[in-house]
Amino acid sequence: MAEETLGAEFPEPPGLARCAALMQRFAARLGSQGRRVVLVTSGGTKVPLEARTVRFLDNFSSGRRGAVSAESFLSAGYGVLFLHRARSAFPFAHRFPPQTWLAALRPVKGEAEVPSSRLLLEAEATSLPGFAAALRSYQKAADAGNFLSVEFATLTDYLHLLQAAAQALRPLGSCAMFYLAAAVSDFYVPASEMPEHKIHSSGGPLQITMKLVPKMLSPLVKDWAPKAFVISFKLETDPTVVIDHARKALETYRHQVVVANILESRRSYVVIVTKDSETQLSLSDEEMGKGMEIEEKIVSNLQSRHIAFINEEN
Ligand code: PMT
User: Fold this and answer.
1) What is the mean pLDDT of residues 82-104?
2) What is the mean pLDDT of residues 200-205?
3) pLDDT confidence of 6, banded at 50, 70, 90?
4) Are 70 and 96 in contact (CB under 8 A)?
5) Do residues 40 and 73 lie in contact, with contact meaning Cβ atoms separated by under 8 Å?
6) 160 CB contacts (<8 Å, ≥6 apart)?
7) Where are any strands of DSSP class E within 136-268?
8) Distance (Å) from CA 84 to ligand 1 centroid
9) Cβ(62) to ligand 1 under 6 A?
10) In sequence order, which ranges of 78-195 are alpha helices (DSSP H)?
11) Within 13 A of 162's CA, how many CA atoms are on the CB side?
12) Atom of ligand 1 nearest to the CA of 261
């Protein structure tokens, strides 16, 4: 899809140029160090039904796949550009929803030597297991400049930011990986056909005709970052069709990998599909009991494939 077409049907969101510049700087710095960098997309896209949006369509995606994967890529030494739905799961923070720390953290009172400009908090270590380690991991990644997060809310935001991220990563060639875990809407109401104001129920039952969203995999693989290692995801609810659909995606877009998953079992079982292989990854009850997550296995598998891909290119 040409840039002009994206612009005409999906108007450029405010703040795009600033985010594009941030992503470009991030990618250029890591690229100049010869690092591998992954773009992780995460969470669902919101599709507005009105220009001054009161109502919108959304989907189930929690963003957890993307958040946990981002943590694993950082552990594996990747620079991580985390393009995520605002308020969806965030790396290192998603295991600690407000109800966990609101009750556990207490302001430290009455310490005379602590200046009033400082806030000291304390907690029983057992009340927030893993919290300090998560803070340290996040801060280490952010301080080292290995992690950049960029937010989207709507489908239009996502499409523009994906294109800008791809342009930022293109100079890295095969060292760039695209890990497209976001659940992107397949349907939208074009800006030109959207009512400006809130749709009123006095108009009777609502009938909406939505257009098909162009798959961004096509320009991504062909034009935006043709040398990159690209992984798309395929989610189905019917296990009998998911591998076929994954294979069709590989044939259509000619990228490297599809990660196939089923809605209900997506936390414990996926299949890594390439043009000549199918690798099942699963978590045993014992691994789940130890708190292991399937993303650790997905990322480890993909990292090996990415290194082999880079070596083939050179
Ligand atoms: O967020 P969680 O709750 O942890 O769940 C994770 C997940 C189930 C959302 C994730 O594992 C997953 O499967 N994401 C992809 C869902 C899907 O089936 O997408 P799709 O078939 O609509 O799209 C195929 C691929 O193209 C996806 O990688 C998507 O990110 C990408 N895409 C889709 C549409 C579009 N216009 N442009 C795209 O790039």
Assistant:
1) 97
2) 93
3) confident
4) no
5) yes
6) 6, 10, 12, 13, 16
7) 147-152, 176-180, 187-188, 211-212, 229-236, 257-262
8) 12
9) yes
10) 98-104, 131-143, 155-169
11) 32
12) 13
